[in-house]
Amino acid sequence: MRINCLSLNENLVILNVWAGTQRPLFVSVEEVAGLVKRIDRVLVESRTVQFSLDNEAKAAEITEALEDVDDRHDWTVRALWDGMNSAINRLRARRPVPTLDISRLLALRDKVLPNGTSAVQRAYPEEASAARRAMDGLDEQDRHLLGTIPSFPEGSQLDVGQERAVFGLELEELGKRRSVLLGGSSGKKKEYEARLAGWQVIDLVLRALEDAAAPIETLTALRQPALDQIRNAERRADQRARAPKPAPKPAESPSTPSTPSEDSASTDVTGEATGSASSESPEESR
Question: In terms of residue numbers, what domain contains 102?
Answer without folding.
Answer: 59-183
